[in-house]
Structure formats: structure tokens, C-alpha cells
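Recap for those who missed Tuesday's class. We walked through two folding examples back to back. For each one, the amino acid string is listed first and its predicted C-alpha cells come directly after. Nothing is annotated here on purpose, so try labeling regions yourself before you check the end of the notes.
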Amino acid sequence: MRTHRVPSSLRRWEDEGGAPQAHRPSRSKRPPPPPDANTALYYFNVRTDVGVLKEDPDGLTLPDLKAALYEALALARRSLVAGDRKGKDRRDWQVEIMDRANQHLLTVKFWEATPVEAPHRLDEG
């Protein structure tokens, strides 16, 4: 019985699931961060109240899902403030946090991220 021998230069590709993809220049304006075993790439897609999906093309590298949640809350707050300045109510919008494989991880409703206003100081005098 004959066995098929794989040349050693190709064995790594078979072990890793196939040949590597061709390298293409990134469309992103900022260089990608160096890979780190303690971080993951998260995407923050925004869905409007009428169901329009605004996809995040670049994503953000963060240490964990908790950090991604805080980022989504901050994004929602900034968008709420921007909408208020334009006279638009965005409380029914939401941020959908996705992983690198485009799997849904978490949804943050904008109304959950109500902007916090600094209290006014009363001047004594």
C-alpha cells in the first residue's frame, strides 16, 4: 500500500487549513494593531429605528467583551448627543457588537446609554 507524502513546505498549509490568502494592501487609513493573544477584534454596527444597518468596516481591538460593552455605550452616548444637537431622537437605535467571524455577541440599546450631564455648580455669594 502506497501512502501519499506531502512535501514539507506544504505540510504547514495542510496543518493550518490551507494555503494562506494573498496579501492585499489594507483599505484602512490606520495600520492594524499588532496581534496580541490577550485582545480580540470587535465590530460595532449601528441599527437605526427604521432598521437601517450601518456596518463598522474597521472594528476595534479590545481586551475583552466587557471593554467592547463600554465602547458600545460610549458610541451610543456620542450618537445620542449628536442626534439631540440635530433635533433627532435616536433612543430607539442600537449598537450590535460582532466578533471577527461576524457572530453577534451583544446588543446595546441607545436608551440604555442615556448621556450623563454634569451637575451645575451653584455659586455661593
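Example two. Treat it independently of the first, because the proteins are unrelated.
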Amino acid sequence: MSKGNSFESDILKLFFNATAIPELAQDDGSAPATTLTVALHTADPGEAGDQTTSETAYTGYARVAVARTTGGWAVSGTAPTVVSPVANIDFGECTASPGAAITHFSVGTGTTNKLMYKGTVTPNITMAVGVIPRLKTTSTISED
């Protein structure tokens, strides 16, 4: 069974923009998350994984926090319903020990390492000293 397009949009707006779904869901009223954490991976973390699963560990890497607002994430209002970062997401420059290529990214809560969404980095990012990994605004996550 699939979701309706407008509900898919509502779900993405709830998670990425902290926009309530009237009569159904709202953001945590006591201490809502104000950012989502984006991580990079050297393999698919899988649906059973978390943000530490296959997470890259090159020298200079750190996860990036993105505001959980319409200023941080753009949710399309039409099918296919997708979300993308409003601005490019740049990670730290590789200064040593580049490790394996970046093949996937994830979005999660950061503090608990809960993986909410994951996607493929296309094309993969070949790591080397001096490389600054970037997820572009064309990187998307969908509910379909």
C-alpha cells in the first residue's frame, strides 16, 4: 500500500521542516530537534544500520548539522515528493588518511545516531588529500 502524494509531502515537511500535520502529528513540544545531522558513508548503511554504520573516517571529517527548517531543506509539493538541501552541504577537507570512496549519505538525529533517511551519492566521491566532499542541492530523498 502506498501513501498519497500530499501525505508524503506532509511527512517530509514534519521531519525536515518541523511542520505539524494537522490532527495527526506535531513536533515534540518540550525539546524539538532544531537540526538534522548529515553523515557520509563508504557503503550502504542499510535499513538496519545507524549513522555510524560504514561511516567514513577520513582525517578532517565531521558530520554536518543542517537546520530543520525551510531554510535548511526544500520539500517539493508535487509528485514525486522529494526533499533536498537548500544549500550545498560541504564537509571537512581531507587532510590525511583518505580511506574509501564516499558512496552514501544519511540524515539522522546525530545525538542518538538514529538513521532516518539514506541515499546514494552519485557520482561517488573519490577521496584524496585536499578533497572537500560536497552534497549538492540536487541530492534528494524521497518518500516513494
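Answers for example two:
The chain is about 10% helix and 30% strand.
The CA atoms of residues 18 and 28 lie 9 Å apart.
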